Amino acid sequence: MPTNPDPGQPHTADLVVFGGTGDLSMRKLIPALYHTDRDGRLSPETRVIAMSRGGLTDADFRGKVDAEVRDQVPIDDPELWRRFLGRLHHVSVDVGGEDRSGWKALAELLAGHEDRDRVYYLASPPRTFGPFCRELQEAGLVTPRSRVVLEKPLGHDLVSAQGINDEVGAIFDERQIFRIDHYLGKETVQNLLVLRFANAFLEPIWNSLWIDHVQITAAETVGTPGRRGYYDHAGALRDMVQNHLLQLLTLTAMEPPARNDRESIRDEKVKVLQALRPITGGEVDRFTVRGQYVAADGMPGYLDEPASTPTTEASRRVETFTAIRAEIKNWRWAGVPFYLRTGKRMPYRRSEIVVQFKDVPHSIFPGGSPNRLVLRLQPEDGIELHIMAKEPGAGEISLKPVPMALSFGKTFTTRVPEAYERLLTDVLAGNPTLFMRRDEVEAAWRWIDPILAAWKADPALPEPYPAGSTGPAAAHELLGRSGRTWHDGEDA
Ligand SMILES: NC(=O)c1ccc[n+]([C@@H]2O[C@H](COP(=O)([O-])OP(=O)(O)OC[C@H]3O[C@@H](n4cnc5c(N)ncnc54)[C@H](OP(=O)(O)O)[C@@H]3O)[C@@H](O)[C@H]2O)c1
């Protein structure tokens, strides 16, 4: 990847957002780009070119962004907002369609700027990824300074992921391909690396001698209103575990990398995925749980949610909740379960990694409990170490777990950026460290596929759980069998 001629300054780029009028773009990408601009991290000449079939002029698109994004971002300087809108363009194109005029218009807009970084951001349905890359190449728009950004989902199983990777890989080198997992842009995730590898005290105890187990949870309160057409064919395992939760697992479990460079961290992450013990055949029942929410407390069940598609067998069989007991077969982690859990319509919205330490080898006080490190990604980024402390008082010593808490929002005066800001800044700078490499994505699918196959072969439906609850009973038994419990409750 060519380097910035002046490393002190942001790169000048043409950022082409394919699907630039869609939900992701209007809710996440455009606001993130505005914040990046406001923080002085976009070069003055950088342009954002949205593409869709919408037939919009530049002025129409700027008007749309003004109407839809203005309320999502702080506009303290109207001149800066006006300048930001001036960066925006729109080109109409129908990928796969006969009409070539859109590609011609894009080529004209980009002509004369071949020396700029070109970022093609595919914020469109995955079926368009391959055709879009081919049409870009046919239009002569892939330069040595081009990169392509792929949004999730990257396939629905290993074979389809390989298909997308092959199609995109036929046009772009792996070093030009940036696969987004927005969880990797979150402050706590990067802080996990800093906590582990910029502090000496954790490393000696970050292993099976001192850690009892790890829990990784992504709980949502929302259901799937209006999204059933998509969700019926996705489900919690594909939608959350294959990407986000496994990424968090790799960062928690990886060995210290030799360098903080584009490949070293990803090399270590992929080794973790390759060391995951496969869960296959009859074991799937023992080590995985799937559930689907049903109506409770005035909330609809999955099958009752408003939907534009009719209820089918796929709707009845899809999991809105899953919990998995994963194991990493290596020296550091042998015997330490990693429990993964995600669900819709849970009682709280929270994404976190909980590292549960073992109890003291010999306790001289009654009532103690083991230490716990909580890395929270949502709703607020922060880190808490729960330690045992003595309750003040002159009588018998009484213990209480007390959190030593680091809230980024409260500790640092600088604004905590949204995940997409960090990731877009990295794409524009050509830094792929926080993006998934092909071998990572495929190793993740290789582990997920046998679970999907066993669920498909099982005539049983997902276990029902009441909307607003912490999931089906089997999820609690998954830990209960070994005397463990999930980290739940508002002050947990
Ligand atoms: N929304 C999110 O929060 C989110 C989060 C993570 C990942 N994603 C992923 O990001 C992608 C986009 O999601 P979204 O929610 O933004 O979808 P969306 O609202 O349906 O937007 C899709 C965009 O793609 C354009 N498009 C679709 N087919 C096209 C074609 N043949 N030619 C040209 N343009 C086309 C649409 O414009 P026209 O219809 O006007 O052409 C629109 O701009 C999906 O892969 C999704 O899985 C979304």
TrEMBL record:
NADP(+) binds at R53, D94, V95, K152. The active site is at H244 (proton acceptor). It holds the Pfam family G6PD_N. It catalyses: D-glucose 6-phosphate + NADP(+) = 6-phospho-D-glucono-1,5-lactone + NADPH + H(+). Residues 193-487 form the Glucose-6-phosphate dehydrogenase C-terminal domain. Residues 16-191 form the Glucose-6-phosphate dehydrogenase NAD-binding domain. GO terms for molecular function: glucose-6-phosphate dehydrogenase activity; NADP binding. SUPFAM superfamilies: Glyceraldehyde-3-phosphate dehydrogenase-like, C-terminal domain (SSF55347), NAD(P)-binding Rossmann-fold domains (SSF51735). It is an enzyme of class 1 (oxidoreductase). GO terms for cellular component: cytosol. Residues 465-492 are annotated as: Disordered. Its EC number is 1.1.1.49. Signal peptide: none annotated. GO terms for biological process: glucose metabolic process; pentose-phosphate shunt, oxidative branch. Substrate binds at H182, K186, E220, D239, K344. Pathway: Carbohydrate degradation; pentose phosphate pathway; D-ribulose 5-phosphate from D-glucose 6-phosphate (oxidative stage): step 1/3. Keywords: Carbohydrate metabolism, Glucose metabolism, NADP, Oxidoreductase. Belongs to the glucose-6-phosphate dehydrogenase family. Catalyzes the oxidation of glucose 6-phosphate to 6-phosphogluconolactone. This is Glucose-6-phosphate 1-dehydrogenase. It comes from Nonomuraea aridisoli. The gene is zwf.
